[in-house]
Recover the amino acids of this structure.
């Protein structure tokens, strides 16, 4: 059995990050009142943190998705990637800021079907884009558009996947501990039910 790699790089703070990283961490602390452990990890490569923060902000401000829809996209990607940290963080944001119905968040966390038709279509399309490596089929796109989304927003889902790939993969190699504000929504892949991934070559449980 393979052993997962864990980096030896430390999480950085204002006292030991290089100038560009320190600038980004200072900005985060000013905006959030804290430096999330994810940002402290990513500060080892300030170019990665800068790219993540820029893409995240653009998705939030310009995607045309509502805050609740944005959270569904981020939660779906983080679920598929098995990211403990981002599942906890985005579940907390879903509960406290984005207005996601609790039943929707719980369905994503459990790997079960979302009751809300529009949010279900969004989650399923996001999953298809991720698991089919950006090659959705006509049925995937038709369902997405029929739910009221646009072709432009297909690219916004691509942006969200790019952003969450940076954070999810960083968390994997750092085994990033969940920050105290997100502890109440901790999640592990084992919490989710087995779910068949729609793919020509794979049928897998949550990783």
């Amino acid at each position: 059995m393979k052993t997962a790699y864990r980096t030896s790089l430390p999480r950085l703070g204002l006292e030991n990050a290089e100038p560009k990283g320190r600038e980004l961490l200072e900005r985060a602390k000013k905006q959030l009142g804290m430096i999330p452990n994810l940002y402290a990890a990513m500060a080892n490569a300030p170019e990665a943190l800068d790219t993540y923060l820029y893409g995240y902000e653009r998705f939030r401000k310009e995607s045309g998705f509502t805050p609740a829809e944005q959270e569904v996209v981020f939660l779906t990607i983080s679920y598929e990637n098995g990211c403990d940290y981002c599942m906890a963080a985005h579940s907390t944001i879903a509960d406290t800021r984005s207005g996601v119905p609790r039943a929707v968040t719980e369905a994503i966390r459990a790997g079960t079907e979302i009751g809300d038709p529009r949010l279900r279509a969004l989650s399923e399309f996001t999953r298809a884009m991720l698991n089919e490596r950006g090659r959705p089929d006509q049925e995937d796109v038709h369902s997405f558009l029929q739910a009221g989304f646009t072709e432009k927003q297909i690219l916004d889902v691509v942006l969200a996947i790019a952003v969450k790939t940076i954070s999810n993969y960083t968390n994997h190699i750092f085994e990033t501990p969940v920050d105290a504000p997100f502890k109440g929504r901790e999640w592990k892949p084992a919490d989710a039910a087995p779910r068949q991934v729609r793919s020509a070559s794979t049928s897998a449980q949550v990783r």
Remarks:
- The radius of gyration is 17 Å.
